[in-house]
Amino acid sequence: MKLAAIALLLSACLVATVSATSSALPTRTVSYANQRVLSCEMTSNEGVRLLRNFVDSHRIDIWQDHNPMHIRVTGLQAALVERIPGVVCENYIADLEAAVVAHEAELAAIAAAPTAGWFDAYHPVDDILAYYKNLTVTYPSLISWVPSIGKSTLGKDIPAVHVTSAKGSNKPKFFIQCNIHAREWISSAVCNYLIDFLVKNYNVNSTVAAILDSQELVVIPVLNVDGLAYTYSNDRLWRKNLSTNKGSKCLGTDLNRNYPYHWNNGGSSSNPCDDTYMGTAANSEPETQASVNYFRASAPAIAAIDFHSYSQLVLRPWGDTNTNCQDETRFAKLGTNMVNTIYALTKTTYTSEKSIGLYPTSGTASDFFYADDSNNKGYRAASYTIELRDTGKQGFLLSPTQIVPNGEEILGAFLGFATDIGANPIVNA
């Protein structure tokens, strides 16, 4: 699909949405006093090794596991990191508590604005799900509501929606998953923007119509429903779910290290106090089980996207090895097309690369979605992790003013990707 055509469709065909923002605001109990976020450039292999050892031994919260690495540290830890040879650091967020306070003030100001629209703000989990449910009432021929695909750790329903037109039957699926990591608020906001556009522009946008006439989108709006709620009530920077861990005072499992493909194969932790704790076994967590089971129930899936933040990356398999996946050439081209579309629309630079990047990850959603081909009824899903805005200056505290531009560029990338993979899906011969 031509970039100019995508840009024209986005500018000309958007049906505006003006809805009151939620009055619910964060009421956190956690303080981030004496904490900062460093951006650390590793200038040698020894620097990579030493910084990784420091991060692992001190159980540092990694915000960007790349080069440069972004790490959340105390003042004392910052002084120690700056002594590591082969590592050059700068303050990205010099005072984390002040940054969170400013973030909360911005959210409060938007909530108080009488003319604010839905996509001018972030929203708590119950409001997000209510918005989707309202879409199913307003556009019943295009979007349907699945009340529960499974229960969370705390027993909450995890809903899904299906987006497709009434034309055709037995359509291949495009699986989309959002907010697996609690603090990544932009991920569910961009998913919301994408689905909102599709259902509201089906009748006026030929590209949207062609996609929904030939494919069925299966969307989990918020997978980590407990965790997202916890970022509003307790800890804005919480990442994991809220499972209890036997023998530990530390809560939570990293759901994106818990999938049943190459689980515990590097890039995850066996310590429940770490943010990348992989759980006691593959697929041990109820949220992961819900995602796995619904993905399999949705077969055949020709594509999948797991949305995250941040870093502006389009990541393809694999996460735990440098070995090319079977469809590396096709995946690399699709990824390049997406980043080119994004740049053409908003002049925002994303990078397309293998998920392994600088360090391995295992037990991830996107690797599982691709690898689970034996259950996918003759297809291999073109599976990506997309890390949304920004590149770290705001990080997980991304301003809500970024929701719409981030949504616009991802929408453009999605339209091109869905058109391409729909016309030529990957057959598992």
Automatic annotation (TrEMBL):
Residue stretches making up the Peptidase M14 domain: 121-421
Highest taxon listed in the record's lineage: Eukaryota
- Enzyme active site: 387
* GO biological processes: proteolysis
Q: Which GO terms describe its molecular function?
A: metallocarboxypeptidase activity; zinc ion binding
Spell out the protein name for this chain. Answer: Carboxypeptidase
Which stretch is the leader sequence? 1-20
- Which species is this UniProt entry from? Capsaspora owczarzaki (strain ATCC 30864)
Q: Which Gene3D superfamilies did the record assign?
A: Zn peptidases (3.40.630.10)
Q: Kindly list the cofactors needed.
A: Zn(2+)
Q: Does the keyword Metal-binding apply?
A: yes
Would the keyword Repressor turn up in this protein's UniProt record?
A: no
| An annotated GO cellular component | extracellular space
Q: Which UniProt keywords apply?
A: Carboxypeptidase, Hydrolase, Metal-binding, Metalloprotease, Protease, Signal, Zinc
Q: Family, per the entry? A: Belongs to the peptidase M14 family.
Recorded hits in PROSITE patterns, A to Z, give: CARBOXYPEPT_ZN_1 (PS00132), PEPTIDASE_M14 (PS52035)
List, alphabetically, the Pfam families matched: Peptidase_M14
